[in-house]
Amino acid sequence: MNLPAEEVKRKLALACRILGTEGHDDLNLGHLSARTPDHRELMYMKGRGLCLSEIQPEDLVTIDFEYQKIDGSRNPHGELPIHIEIYKRRADVGCVVHTHPLHATAFSATGQTLRPVNNEGVMFANALPYFDLVTDLIVTPELGRSLAEKLGDAKAVFLKNHGIVVVGETIEEATVRAYLLEKTIKTLFVARVLGEPKWTEDEEAEQKSKRIFTGPKINAMWEALARQLEQREAPLRILKSLERRLAKKT
Amino acid sequence: MNLPAEEVKRKLALACRILGTEGHDDLNLGHLSARTPDHRELMYMKGRGLCLSEIQPEDLVTIDFEYQKIDGSRNPHGELPIHIEIYKRRADVGCVVHTHPLHATAFSATGQTLRPVNNEGVMFANALPYFDLVTDLIVTPELGRSLAEKLGDAKAVFLKNHGIVVVGETIEEATVRAYLLEKTIKTLFVARVLGEPKWTEDEEAEQKSKRIFTGPKINAMWEALARQLEQREAPLRILKSLERRLAKKT
Amino acid sequence: MNLPAEEVKRKLALACRILGTEGHDDLNLGHLSARTPDHRELMYMKGRGLCLSEIQPEDLVTIDFEYQKIDGSRNPHGELPIHIEIYKRRADVGCVVHTHPLHATAFSATGQTLRPVNNEGVMFANALPYFDLVTDLIVTPELGRSLAEKLGDAKAVFLKNHGIVVVGETIEEATVRAYLLEKTIKTLFVARVLGEPKWTEDEEAEQKSKRIFTGPKINAMWEALARQLEQREAPLRILKSLERRLAKKT
Amino acid sequence: MNLPAEEVKRKLALACRILGTEGHDDLNLGHLSARTPDHRELMYMKGRGLCLSEIQPEDLVTIDFEYQKIDGSRNPHGELPIHIEIYKRRADVGCVVHTHPLHATAFSATGQTLRPVNNEGVMFANALPYFDLVTDLIVTPELGRSLAEKLGDAKAVFLKNHGIVVVGETIEEATVRAYLLEKTIKTLFVARVLGEPKWTEDEEAEQKSKRIFTGPKINAMWEALARQLEQREAPLRILKSLERRLAKKT
User: Could you give phi then psi for residue B31, rounded to 5 degrees?
Assistant: First the structure.
């Protein structure tokens, strides 16, 4: 079963770098996790100290749901209760994203209900919950449970004056959702300046969401994000390889 | 007649990459089409699965106006009725753009009438129509016909909470128009924050538009967009070519 | 006297590329000019067809104040009356900039008086004039004279729903002024969202302006702009040179 | 004691380049300083003429608290009283940052009290002071003393229509604070458009601040900023090295 584990780690590291370079980087803060493929009481999680945009598979740690580190050279983030308590409560969730992107974090400060103004907005047509018990970090199992409870069956939750938590069945789904959540709020930001936004009503939003965000279409969006990441990463990778060659020749 | 067909495809792919890298990319969504040069009941259209910014001529598909794919390895986008129904209704249209750029999409959520605040605004001085029958995707011939009817004789139409459709006699014209539509709304966005915008009145706008947007001037703008694309594409192209050489030497 | 002429051309082309890559590019539109060093009834001006960011000395044309092209392979822009009529009226002006940067153009749509909210704002503490006779292009000597009259003794003038004209004794001064005018309006844009801006009052603004914007300090800012341009231009220049070598080896 | 001095200079130059490339560059304006490690009545300070983003250790000057230059080939900035008078008043301060980043400078024009809307906002939960005695440059010891007095025991002070001064015990702390001050105001900017921001109340902000901004965590953020700078600087460094080789071969 080694191969699937490597594949999940590779994909989770890719998801970290995609979101990190798409506006979710906040220095070394923010973290993603995914259930391990072989054991449902374990997760891989971004280790502490690096930016999301820097994560490679070896920077992940393996944690069990008793909060013990099983594997990995890095320390876990103090907010691991966010991940563990959501996995315990939501058997359908395979990946958890917690980040502080600019527009969604600013939105979390307004306490508003997000309503759809564009295509991706309909993904979040069922009003996303709002966690405001604390604005502080989620560093105890109790806070993690409160947050998981507030999340309920939703796809994401806003953390007041803090950021977002987004979940998905797969790494692909959670990543695409987190990307689109930030993007839809960016669109709302522009719309708010231009005039009074009109919403897509609930019924149409749900129908539209079913059409646009099927499993295969979300996977195609993930593939697009992965190719765009490669476009951003390739120049420095190639130049660094050139630099090593030039150094050898000296 | 092979050469012109290749030339149209090359130009359409270029238009996709220009708009994709000028703020019209929305993952793998959005699409452009152009009539084939030899047969007016056929169109080339961006195939499914790639970003606009990635399109090469071989990623285009050929579709007839009975909705049948004639050529091409990719699947067509589900929204092909937008293109076909507009071509059927507008003999003057040779190219159709459907994208979701940030500012124009946000504008589509406000239902406002676009009025000119800068030079390029006068291109759209005759109030652009607003399609709000649905906010969902345009996936049936019926919806395509409704949209084409709403477009009427205009250069573009806003799709509520969705995006824009822009048309032109040529690929150059439709591309420049789509680029300038997004840009003029970006200017309006800034003006709205700075104060109460004053419009250029209709009569002057029309006269100004005739002066700035003649055929040769639109072609010169297209050429500028094409050169700027080359500036953006060249670094990675050269580095990838270097990478292949370095790999061979190893 | 050949050398100084070459030096003025080199500097004017540099000014075009600086402003072009600092937010003043608007496809192939916008233009700069400078008086020739040897004859005060002649000017060098950006030729038609290229973006500001692309201009090299050989893309300039030489025009006399009777509107005749004396030298250069390109056509002049239709708006040359802006330049000629200002030079005729203002013996102190050695360089004229006409561009459409985003924030300043948006500001021109509001008809407001610009007041200083930051350091560079004080450069424009004496209220800049506002030209709203037409919003159309300035393509006749009459319109050029009206604009030059409206400019009066000021450093710059807003053209309603069109853009800005900025002048300076030297290329360095006009370029730095145009750069800072856009920048100060960008700051105002942000301030307008954050709250109600407080202005620096006229007397203090004038004193502050004399301290910050002396000739040597403006030259030092020009040098900073020129070095930053080199940072932006160097990668592609080096890569293109590499590409030529790789091509030769094949 | 040579080595520590070199290390402080290297770190101060790095801090200049980090902030310069993170939105604090304003042409050749803005400056950072740090106390020398061996003598508390001396400071290293960015010399005049370069952008923050260009600073290398050899561009620093050494100044004593009697305003005399002790070492260095460049001239000091005229605003050195900001630095000297703060060091004289605040024995705990080891590094002073004075810059004009876009959002914080715009905020300085509003005279508002900054309140926390996101994680980094809590770092500045104790209302930052506002200096509005003058908006002009701080070029006399008297003005420097007034500013230092207004700063009091705070981490930073807004200079009306001018910019910010941020202090820290170490270079790392002052740099991270300056970076986060600009970032938190950027978040506030977006929140202001999206709706009415809710603040994190003082008590929770203080507790949250103690959790997030411990010494080790601030150092980890500094390390992240340093690695991200290397990502931005590496391409041109490698290409310039390639250019030198290509030139030699010709």
Answer: -160, 150
CB–CB contact B234 C236 (8 Å)? yes
Tell me the one-letter amino acid at A67: Y
Each residue's pLDDT tens digit, B178-236? 999 999 999 999 999 999 999 999 999 999 999 999 999 999 999 999 999 999 999 99
A-D interface: how many C-beta pairs under 8 angstroms? 109
Taking CA–CA distances from C197, the nearest residue in chain B reads B194
- Bridge partners of A69, per DSSP, are A63
Determine contact, residues B127/B141, Cβ cutoff 8 Å.
no
D68: tokens are 């005399």
Q: Rounded distance, CA D222 to CA D216, Å?
A: 10
Chain D residue with minimum CA distance to A193: D193
Q: Flag whether pLDDT at A198 surpasses 80.
A: yes
∠ at Cα C170 (C164, C172), nearest 5°?
75
Q: Determine the Cα–Cα distance for residues C145 and A188; give it in Å rounded to an integer.
A: 44
Q: Are B102 and A187 in contact (CB under 8 A)?
A: yes
8 Å CB contact of A117 and B102? no
ipTM of the predicted structure?
0.96
* Degrees, nearest 5: CA angle A103-A105-A108: 110
Rounded to 10 degrees, the C-alpha dihedral A214/A216/A218/A222 comes to: 180
Asked whether the beta carbons of D107 and C191 are under 8 A apart, the reply is yes
Bridge-based pairing of strands A69-71 and A60-64 is antiparallel
Q: What letters, b where the CB count within 10 A reaches 16 and e where it falls short, cover C53-66?
A: bbbebebbbbbebe
Which of left, alpha, beta for C60 (phi over 0: left; psi -120 to 50: alpha)? Answer: beta
**Residue B108: is it exposed, middle or buried by C-beta count within 10 angstroms (0-12/13-18/19+)?**
buried
Sheet containing D130-131: give its strands across.
D69-71, D60-64, D42-46, D31-35, D95-99, D163-168, D156-159, D130-131
DSSP β-ladder status, D156-159 and A31-35: unpaired
